[in-house]
Design goal:
- By secondary structure, the protein is an alpha+beta fold.
- It has 6 domains: 130 residues, Cathepsin B, Chain A (Alpha-Beta Complex); 112 residues, Ubiquitin-like (UB roll) (Roll), CATH 3.10.20; 100 residues, Phosphatidylinositol 3-kinase Catalytic Subunit, Chain A, domain 1 (Ubiquitin-like (UB roll)); 95 residues, Ubiquitin-like (UB roll) (Roll); 93 residues, Ubiquitin-like (UB roll), CATH 3.10.20; 120 residues, Ubiquitin-like (UB roll), CATH 3.10.20.90.
- The chain has 17 helices and 35 strands.
- Strand 7 and strand 8 form a beta hairpin.
- The two termini are 54 Å apart.
- Its EC number is 3.4.19.12.
- One of its GO terms (molecular function) is cysteine-type deubiquitinase activity.
- Keywords: Hydrolase, Protease, Thiol protease, Ubl conjugation pathway.
- It is an enzyme of class 3 (hydrolase).
């Protein structure tokens, strides 16, 4: 009797989502595929004819299209966007990531029907026609019942929005408004950075502070955002109040960029400019800078009733170098007279550090980073070309014994060499290489460009409180910033060469790090082998990871496997076979004498106990490779293995041995088709369906294999040589 199959709907919802089934499982390909065929969809649909006779038809079942969900690409990668009409009689809009733009009807309908592009009927070459197939098409439609449109698309009121979203939206709007306000008012403000004696005291670098050279640690100077229209008087009063210092005891010096690329205080801002705007002072004294940099001079005692600061003197800055601490100490500023001798300040310098009056000193001028000049004590400051803002450095004059002690300890013993070391300092950002699998912190460390691998590892190990020998570093790709090459501990490269970014502008000083479970010495001197051990059946397996000296041979691997706790042998005289698998076929069976260095890093290795029927096979028996596929011999999967074709044995008996070797029950094995697969990839397999066949009589060649045609249910195809298809969602 003929039967009719169908669906009768009892009702339809106010909002109807129609899935267009653009994706389906292809049995031939054993994969999901996308259907790009043309499918037209209307603006209006009437669903009355699909309703049950008993359905309430008081309200019409006419629906209007208001949403189209679109996919562009294939089943493995693509991009999604939505076309939506938010108002009853309004326009269509395209919502594509963070872009929302109006579109015309053609972009909603014709462009998303699928099929081929218009006017492609003139193309006769099949492959060329395929290239013009539309890969962008609708996969879901959203219809709203016409009688419910006003209700569904009613204006959104605050009560409709969840409280947490309202709060977040309010915060985002506040941030956006603040940013917009700052952008609009940016021209009204001036950024002022202030260096104090306290900031100078701890500065470890050139000049008085590092304002913007990110190759070195930036100084934490005081920063103010002021109105350009503010007068110098009001600015000075505001800053003085914030430091709790009387205004009369404060004087500001303007930093300028000198021609030798140093940044030094150049001239004080006169109190006669009290009523002048900061904008005018900036334009007059530092017009080439976007921001204003100032040194705040503070007087402790007055020179007279009305005078706190001297005139007609040169203000210089003093740095003391301590070779024991390998550090500078900023001792503030000092007034000198241009005709005074350099030696006149030695008493002041000794007193500053509580040295005895007869302590010999070495005095230098920091002219610029690569020019540190020893000063002559009998020369005048004018003869030494000293001017406001110059920096004078001093240290104790060391004995030969003290110099030798510092040198032996790896310390810089004098000011010129310490300055040279400062030019080699570099801020390196360390990022965890395996952030997703093992979250670790990012951090910055000041290192030396000439350091070796072990010195870098020592500094990072101290920071992370871990053994430096259990750290491994990887360079960063210069464009993508992703991990690039592992750095060997045995490298002769300096840190600067490891970074490989000297040619970039600005330079990117990034290294990735890993925290290892074993010593990097062991890791680099040994070769680590991962082997899958097969048990009594092909489906039973254990992962065994072993490490060997790099001069070991394959027999050493086999010997270690035989002793491993996961390995149980059937007899003391059992033999183990090691073979590598590529694309789910045995590529090579090792003899045992091969050096392990020849085994490629990503080789998939299997080991198994050689079956007794293979060991005791007679001269008329034949050992053949068996592998798995689905429908087509090139669609391989599973674990291949060696199998004995016994002389004179029927296919029925061979199947029994195969089933036991596979560890399959009779029901599952009944779905397996056995075939002889020729060596040529294009040749068709010969399926064996007669259980009375004597397989040994087939006279198989060395290139032919036994193929098992069945669906892969193990999910292991990607590991043993099959290529896993990654799914990418673009945008």
């Amino acid at each position: 009797q003929d039967a009719k199959k169908g669906v009768i709907f009892e009702s339809f919802p106010p909002v109807l989502h129609l899935q267009l089934k653009r994706f389906e499982y292809d049995l031939q390909r054993d994969a999901m595929v996308k259907i790009n065929d043309r499918h037209e969809f209307p603006m209006e649909i009437d669903l009355e004819e699909f309703l049950s006779e008993d359905t309430d038809r008081t309200n019409p079942h006419k629906y209007l299209l208001h949403g189209v969900l679109v996919h562009s690409g294939d089943s493995h990668e693509g991009h999604y966007f939505v076309l939506f009409k938010p108002e009853k009689d309004g326009k269509w809009f395209k919502f594509d990531d963070d872009h929302v733009i109006p579109v015309i009807d053609k972009e909603v309908f014709e462009d998303n029907y699928g099929g081929e592009y218009p006017n492609e009927n003139t193309i006769t070459i099949r492959s060329a026609a395929r290239n013009h197939e539309r890969f962008t098409n609708a996969y879901m439609l959203v219809y709203i019942r016409e009688s419910n449109v006003d209700e569904i698309l009613s204006p959104v009121v605050s009560e409709d929005i969840p409280e947490h979203l309202q709060k977040r939206l309010k915060q985002e709007r506040a941030i956006e408004d603040q940013w917009r306000k700052e952008m609009e008012e940016r021209h009204l403000y001036l950024i002022v950075k202030i260096v104090t004696a306290e900031k100078f005291k701890v500065h470890q670098g050139f000049d008085l502070a590092n304002f913007d050279d990110r190759q070195y640690p930036l100084s934490e100077v005081f920063t103010y955002k002021i109105l350009k229209a503010d007068t110098y008087g009001s600015f000075k009063e505001h800053v003085s109040r914030s430091f709790n210092i009387p205004t009369k005891q404060v004087r500001f010096w303007v930093f300028v960029n000198r021609q030798n690329k140093t940044v030094r205080p150049d001239a004080p801002i006169s109190d006669s400019l009290t009523n002048i705007s900061m904008e005018e002072i900036h334009a007059k004294m530092t017009s080439r800078q976007n921001e204003m940099k100032l040194y705040m001079e503070v007087a402790d005692i007055p020179l007279s009733d009305l005078t706190w600061f001297p005139a007609n003197h040169i203000m210089v800055f003093i740095k003391y170098f301590d070779p024991d601490k390998q550090a500078f100490e900023g001792l503030g500023h000092l007034y000198v007279q241009k005709f005074g001798n350099v030696g006149d300040i030695t008493r002041f310098l000794r007193e500053k550090k509580n040295f005895s009056p007869d302590t010999p000193l070495k005095i230098y001028e920091e002219v610029k980073p690569n020019m540190i000049v020893e000063m002559k004590l009998k020369s005048t400051f004018q003869q030494s070309e000293i001017q406001d803002g110059d920096i004078i450095c001093f240290q104790k004059a060391l004995t030969e014994k003290e110099i030798q002690e510092h040198t032996t300890s790896g310390r810089y013993w004098d000011i010129p060499h310490f300055y040279e070391s400062l030019t080699l300092r570099i801020v390196v950002l360390f990022k965890p290489k395996l952030k997703d699998r093992d979250p670790k912190p990012e951090f910055e460390i000041v290192l030396n460009k000439k350091w070796t691998y072990d010195q870098v590892a020592g500094a990072v190990g101290t920071h992370l409180n871990t053994d430096p020998l259990k750290l491994r570093f990887t360079t960063a790709h210069s464009t993508s910033g992703t991990p690039k090459n592992v750095i060997k501990r045995t490298t002769n490269q300096t840190l600067s060469e490891m970074l490989q970014t000297a040619y970039l502008s600005p330079p990117a000083h990034v290294l990735f790090y890993e925290m290892l479970k074993i010593s990097i010495v062991e890791l680099e001197t040994k070769k680590f082998i991962k082997v899958y051990w097969l048990g009594n059946t092909v489906k039973d397996e254990e992962v065994i990871e072993l490490g060997f000296p790099k001069d070991a041979v394959v027999n050493d691997i086999i010997d270690e496997i035989s002793k491993h706790e996961k390995v149980t042998s059937s007899s003391p005289n059992s033999r183990i076979r090691l073979f590598d698998v590529h694309h789910n076929k045995i590529q090579k069976e090792y003899t045992g004498s091969e050096p392990i260095e020849r085994i490629q890093e990503h080789t998939t290795l299997y080991a198994e106990e050689i079956p007794q029927d293979e060991i005791h096979a007679d001269q008329n028996d034949r050992t053949i490779q068996v592998y798995h596929f689905t429908k087509d011999p090139i669609r391989v999967h599973g674990i291949p293995f060696k199998f004995v074709i016994k002389n004179g044995e029927t296919l029925a008996d061979t199947k029994v041995r195969l089933r036991h070797r596979l560890g399959m029950n009779e029901k599952d094995f009944s779905k397996v088709k056995i075939a002889i697969v020729p060596g040529a990839s294009y040749a068709k397999p010969e399926y064996l369906e007669d259980d009375d066949i004597i397989l040994s009589e087939k006279k198989l060649s060395n290139e032919e294999c036994l193929g098992l045609d069945h669906v892969d249910k193990t999910g292991r195809a990607g590991r043993v040589g099959g290529v896993e298809k990654a799914i990418f969602i673009r945008g």
